[in-house]
Amino acid sequence: MGGVQRQGSIGGSPAIRVRVTGGVLLVAHLALVAWLTLRPLDVPWVMPANLRPLATVRADLALGWPEAAERLGEGLALLAPLGALLPMTHGRLDVSPLASLARTVAAGALTSLGIALLQTGVPGRVVDVDTLLLNTVGVALAHLAVVPAVRVRLRRRAERRRSPAVRQDDPAQGRTPTYSRVGLAPWSDALPPSAP
């Protein structure tokens, strides 16, 4: 691969495969989200927009366990894959976990806000601030559940590639030769011979 590699990124062709796969999955997921959220609905009556935080969440919780779990789960799951796909398309391993989380959550919140703004012009769709909150929390939870563990695993794999160590107990590689320690020579051996 030509060119200069970014500091802390996944090396070589695996990096390209990870980024391309992440990009393809991200585009596919966003297309699915657009189809689910921006299709016009043929409904006889629409609730007014909800701009009071947690009002819809409280109303969903009042419905009881199965219905509340389903509705809240849908809100959390809609954009949750972005929590893993956005860092995957970035392709960096040595990133501050807090900075990575902040960037990913901000991108998820902006995506959810963009969807909400586009829904204002779609028949049958209503803006709900709780959807934005649930989508953002879903992105954060997915990021925390997946990205740190995957980065640790990829870092270990990259370290093994950079410094392949021969294990002494590996019969295929044979034993690592060992040498006895050699001490320092006495000063008399290091000094030039003196003239008589």
Please tally the helical runs, counting DSSP H or I stretches of 4 or more residues: 7
* Whole-number total of structural domains: 1
- Tell me the distance between the termini: 67 Å
Please tally the β strands and state the result: 0
Based on helices, strands and strand pairing, what is the structural class? mainly alpha
Name the average pLDDT: 84
Q: What's the order of the H and E elements?
A: HHHHHHH
Major pleated sheet = none
Q: In percent, how helical is the residue content?
A: 55-70%
Q: Determine the strand fraction and express it as a percent band.
A: under 5%
Write down the overall geometry.
elongated
Unreliably modeled segments: 1-7
Radius of gyration over C-alpha positions, nearest whole angstrom? 28 Å
Notable features of this structure?
transmembrane, single chain, disordered N terminus, 196 residues, membrane, VanZ family protein, transmembrane helix
Secondary structure blueprint with pairings:
Elements: H1 12-38, H2 55-62, H3 65-77, H4 82-90, H5 97-119, H6 129-162, H7 187-190
Protein name: VanZ family protein
Transmembrane segments: 20-38, 101-120, 132-152
Region (Disordered): 158-196
